[in-house]
Amino acid sequence: MTYTVVHDATEIVTGPADEDSETLQTETGAAVVIEDGTVSAVGPSAEITAEYPPANAETAVDASGNCILPGFVDSHTHALFVGDRSDEFEAKLAGKSYQEILADGGGILRTVRNVREATDGELAAQLRTHLDVMLANGTTTAEVKSGYGLDTDIELRMLAVIDRVNENHPVGLVPTFMGAHAVPDDTTSEAYTESVVTEQLPTVADQGIAEFCDVFCEADVFSVEQSRRILTAGQEHGLTPKIHADEFARLGGSQLAAELSAASADHLLQSTPEDAASLVDNGVTPTFLPGTAFGLDGEYPRLAPFEERGTIPAIATDFNPNCYAPTLGFAATLACVGVGMTPAQAIRGITERGAAALDRTDGRGTLRTGAPGDLVVLDAPTYRHLPYKYDGALVETVLKDGTVVH
Ligand SMILES: N=CN[C@@H](CCC(=O)O)C(=O)O
Ligand SMILES: [Zn+2]
């Protein structure tokens, strides 16, 4: 019998509390056992270690003084990018808006130019570098979008790079096709939508790597009608919809997500209580991206309409060159300080709610029996310290499928 045992933890967060969904279930003085990559036992350390002695374990981690959390799930990233946009940060500080930068050929379109010029090796190396930082800060599962190619060949290349890196990086990747991330500057949104539907989507579906299809449904980008066309075509090709909705304008992206039963609707800065109700009623996981809100004008999405319906949003980083913040612990801090979540809600947001936004039903984001053996050992005694000590460096050890990977 080979097993990993993490023992004598000051606190283990096993998942949401059963009776009150806004709080966490925790055990003190506890241990967790992982066999064949899966959690096989959680409970009082003395009982667990009597059955699974650390001395006989393949891997034993003494977690005294530490809090153990489920591995973090980042359900929204654009982590495959190259190039620098630090001057756009300065332009924004000087008053230029994100949309003005994009309209001038900067923003996403600038990263598209950089990605198109990069070799596959350069793209893979940069993605690995980004994932190393994410892993060191507790992320064990991450969605990664294409969307900096904006033509069939480069979108396919991006997805192939994500797939290749996924073979040998500890962070488990979930690939999303996002050909509809922006409109290339040599075409119109109508013509480009047509090419996404008739050229990109069939080829991407044949390639068989992408699991989700995402659209930037926004004023001057893709209309609701265009987004509907792309997402339903994606569904016909077997890709589950996700959507960037209600970020700058309330165009109707949330309502579209509800209509299509999307896996998630993300950003939601302009969403109304009616939008929140539609999302919740149709099983769409609302996803807040507080790092992006922090870097724009500091307007955060509203929690109350979701809370009132018993739903905690997922919290994701949206890591991209406009939001250079790949750390979910920091996103959790912003979820507390900016959105007004409690630390328990924020921890739920970066764990099992993130898993829900990716349609994962394998217990990911919890540490219950049968869940993946993905664990974060904090250099702190309680989960509350994660959003509280917000300058990072709180993650001591990370296990993926029961193996120490950081
Ligand atoms: N808004 C669209 N996409 C990203 C930004 C990507 C970029 O600026 O490169 C987002 O979710 O914030
Ligand atoms: Zn995004």
TrEMBL record:
Q: Which UniProt keywords apply?
A: Cytoplasm, Histidine metabolism, Hydrolase, Iron, Metal-binding, Zinc
CC annotations in GO: cytoplasm
Q: Which reaction does it catalyse?
A: 4-imidazolone-5-propanoate + H2O = N-formimidoyl-L-glutamate
Amidohydrolase-related domain segment(s): 68-405
List the EC numbers from the record.
Answer: 3.5.2.7
**In which pathway is this protein known to take part?**
Amino-acid degradation; L-histidine degradation into L-glutamate; N-formimidoyl-L-glutamate from L-histidine: step 3/3
Annotated localization: Cytoplasm
Q: Mainly resides where?
A: cytoplasm
Q: Where does Fe(3+) bind?
A: 76, 78, 244, 318
- Report a single Gene Ontology molecular function: iron ion binding
**Which branch of life, at top level?**
Archaea
Give the cofactors, semicolon-separated.
Zn(2+); Fe(3+)
Biological process (GO) annotations held by this record are:
L-histidine catabolic process to glutamate and formamide; L-histidine catabolic process to glutamate and formate
Query: What is the name of this protein?
Result: Imidazolonepropionase
Organism equals Natronomonas salsuginis
